[in-house]
Amino acid sequence: MPECPELHLASQFVNIVCKGRIFKGPVIKSEVSKLAEVDFNGEYTISAASRGKEIKLTLVPYGNGKKSANKRKPLDIVFQFGMSGRFDFDKVAEMRKHAHLNFFTKDEPRMVLSYVDPRRFGKWQVGGDWSTKRGPCVLFEYDEFRRNVLENVKNPAFNKPICECLLNQKYFNGVGNYLRSEILFRAGIPPFVSARSVLEPLTNGVTKSGVKVKKESPDVLELCHTVPQEVVNLKGGGYDPWGRDKNFAIFIGWLQCYNKPEMKNMGDHNKRTVFYCGDPGPMVPKDIQVRGVKRFPKQANVSSKKMKKDLESSSESSEEEEEEEEEVLTKEKKEDGGSKAKPKLARSSTKSKLTRPSKGHRPDRGSARSARKK
Predict the structure, then answer these.
(1) Which of 14, 35, 67, 212 has the most Cβ atoms closer than 10 angstroms to its Cβ?
(2) Measured between alpha carbons, how far is 354 from 220 in angstroms, rounded to an integer?
(3) Looking at residues 290-305, what average pLDDT do you find?
(4) What b-and-e string marks burial along 338-372, b requiring 16 or more CB atoms within 10 Å of the CB?
(5) Does the pLDDT value for residue 236 go beyond 80?
(6) What pLDDT sits at residue 331?
(7) CA-CA distance, 363 to 361, in Å (whole number)?
């Protein structure tokens, strides 16, 4: 599931591919998507910015000073990626199957910037702004983020285990499942200790003016800022369990705790898997659930067929955890007034269209038969 480093890298990708390009014509939404239409026509440019687990596209009218262009106002579209959202930039003839919102370039050969979301848990808001339900971004608004946590540490939200509190986007906007495991491991904090017991002592290191007193080792709030920075500075696209990124092996090598076979793991009270080392702490769930590690696909610049095969093999070992994440996202979707219909998963359609091996790929079976005849 994309977290703040992946959202920031996606915004960088959009800014790179859209630099110097003019887009033209209507924004096309897929027929299967039940999200809002984007009523924006004519010529325009596109830029992007990210904040926590959100990314904002800004469409600015372009007309070389023409009055018609000047009358139109810029339009912001705020995206949340859900479990599988991303942006791709392709030739129109090679547009992705699960492209649900598409922006077309003016010049030939025509290209398309697509919001792609196979599992359709992501969403966008036309004319929207950053969500008021989310706190300051751990990556770009560190001072505000730290102040927001320490000033509210008495809030009942911090009665929970620290591993669950780190997923609360009201205070830790941008932190997700892999980041929380890495942050707690590097901080040497058991996942199931009270969040308040971890965070309240940090208020003693802050002066009345809100300035933090420097210490030799980074605390957990500093790691919430520096660990995502490390992912952004890696060569690649960050967490990509589908194997689309040819540099994904670099990210796997960077991980110290998450999905490592030598680490322990446990489902929290929301059934989200957290990885850790040593004693988990006193606030473990009564029904302890331990899961196997995910089998990440090999890093390669994969073709669409290979990506489908890697996605299938990767999803088999992580199916339980992903389905539980889907339950949480479905609940959030219903609370936001979204569609109550259960979305179709890309996994089912992927399996049905996998190419089957030809007879030439079964030499062992033929050799075994000939050996029996002998």
Answers:
(1) 14
(2) 44
(3) 57
(4) beeeebebbbeebeeeeeeeeeeeeeeeeeeeeee
(5) no
(6) 53
(7) 6
Is 2 marked active-site? yes
Q: What is the dihedral of CA 181, 184, 185, 191, to 10 degrees?
A: -80
Question: What totals of helices (H) and strands (E) does the chain contain, helices first?
Answer: 11, 11
Q: What is the mean pLDDT of residues 46-71?
A: 84
Catalytic hit among 53, 56, 294, 308:
53
Q: What is the pLDDT of residue 315?
A: 39
Identify the residue whose tokens are 């887009």.
23
- Is residue 321 part of the annotated active site? The answer reads no
DSSP state of 51: E
Q: Which is the catalytic residue, given 3, 6, 322, 325? A: 3
Percent of the chain residues topping a pLDDT of 90: 62
Entry pTM: 0.77
* Three-class DSSP category at 296: coil
DSSP letter, residue 360: G
| CA within 13 Å, CB half, 125 | 13
State the Rg of the chain over Cα. 23
Mean pLDDT value across residues 83-108: 93
Q: Which residues contact 13 (CB under 8 A, 6 or more apart)?
A: 87, 89, 237
**What is the pLDDT at residue 237?**
76
pLDDT at 220 over 60: yes
Identify residue 271 by its one-letter amino acid code: K
- Burial of residue 109 (CB within 10 Å: 0-12, 13-18, 19+) is exposed
Burial class (CB in 10 A: 0-12, 13-18, 19+), 120: buried
User: 274 has which bridge partners?
Assistant: 266
Lowest mean pLDDT among 1-10, 78-87, 239-248, 335-344: 335-344
Which residues does residue 126 pair with via DSSP β-bridges, in sequence order? 77
Written as six digits, the tokens of 36 are 């809002």
Residue 355 has pLDDT above 60, yes or no: no
Residue 26 DSSP code: P
Give strand ranges (E) for 209-334: 264-267, 273-276
Q: Are strands 264-267 and 123-126 parallel, antiparallel or unpaired?
A: unpaired
Told to judge if 151 belongs to the known catalytic residues of this protein, a careful annotator would answer no
